[in-house]
Design brief:
three-stranded antiparallel β-sheet, about 20% helix
């Protein structure tokens, strides 16, 4: 369970109220930290990742004595102090060379961690690619290739996919602008050897270029813009069951209310059901046809049938069903 902090005065109460969970959370911010020792490659990669995440990133350049898997109190302090739920720590040592530690926090506590080791031979920074870069604040598209990422059993690759998605997804948006689809980040996982080292994960960043094709649909090309990172997975820390359950809770107000007699099919079309009362067919307005109308020629014959003239001694008597009238001949 999360720690419950009781405010001592009105000022601290207001600060705690700002940190309370919201129905619609803000875009997650990444804090990039540097360990006690870090190589030049790690510092360049931290700068490149900071460029991909701007403006939702904060980078500290001073050294920090942090050992995340031994004591995570320093990471929790930085997370609460800077209001950042995502942290990336870069360090370098003989035992763990060119190390990047990806950390997720929830409620000021460390949720889970992933440690990767960058392969120096294949790593390329953003400056080594001589091409046009994407604009600041572009929301990237993510691609994961490899059966390990889709494993039904939780493992280190599924954890990596979850953390990388959380780091690079950006803010939520209801609409998509095609002109803004300029960046794609792909992660490809290699097969693990049976008795050898674990398979490596390849991270590539591509710039999407649209050109004229003479048709309505433009021609799409991709160009690698960097950084290029190949790494292997090291230590991992899974989230605790109670903390993970607390982090995955959804507020009640976000669930849409069910509307009566309205359904949505598989395609996404809305289908409604209407209930009608008993209809009175005697008052039903039908279409007027010319053949059903009464003609004017038939009217005198009908009148003649109803009236009979009887002659009585030079006096013509008109007998009708209702009245009798006399007239002289």
């Amino acid at each position: 369970m999360l720690r419950q902090i009781k405010p001592k005065n009105a000022r601290s109460k207001r600060e705690l109220a700002k940190r309370e969970p919201l129905a619609h959370e803000n875009t997650k911010t990444v804090l990039l930290l540097r360990g006690t020792k870090s190589s030049s490659l790690i510092q360049d990669l931290l700068a490149d990742i900071n460029g991909l995440k701007r403006p939702f990133s904060v980078r500290f350049t001073k050294k920090n004595e942090i050992h995340p898997f031994e004591d995570a109190s320093s990471l929790e302090f930085f997370s609460q102090k800077n209001d950042t739920s995502l942290l990336l720590l870069g360090s370098h040592s003989k035992k763990r060379p060119h190390c990047l530690t990806w950390v997720r926090c929830f409620g000021g506590q460390v949720l889970d961690m992933l440690e990767v080791y960058v392969l120096q031979d294949t790593a390329r920074t953003l400056k080594q690619f001589k091409c046009e870069k994407c604009k600041v604040g572009i929301k990237p598209m993510l691609s994961f290739s490899g059966t390990q990422f889709d494993s039904p059993v939780s493992n280190q690759y599924t954890l990596a996919k979850s953390i990388f998605t959380d780091f690079f997804r950006g803010g939520e948006s209801s609409t998509v602008d095609v002109e803004g689809l300029q960046l794609m980040i792909s992660f490809a996982a290699g097969e693990d050897a049976q008795d050898g080292p674990p398979g490596k994960i390849q991270m590539r960043c591509w710039k999407i270029i649209t050109k004229r094709s003479g048709q309505r649909v433009p021609r799409v090309e991709i160009e690698e813009m960097g950084p290029r990172i190949d790494f292997t997975i090291g230590r991992t820390k899974e989230a605790e069951t109670s903390l993970w359950k607390e982090a995955m809770k959804k507020p009640k107000g976000l669930e849409p209310k069910a509307k009566k007699n309205i359904e949505t099919d598989i395609v996404g079309d809305k289908i409604g059901r209407i209930h009608l009362g008993k209809q009175d067919l005697s008052e039903l307005q039908t279409r007027k046809m010319k053949g059903l109308k009464r003609s004017r020629e038939a009217e005198p014959e009908e009148v003649a049938d109803d009236i009979s003239i009887v002659s009585d001694g030079g006096v013509a008597v008109a007998e009708d069903a209702g009245t009798k009238r006399q007239r002289t001949a």
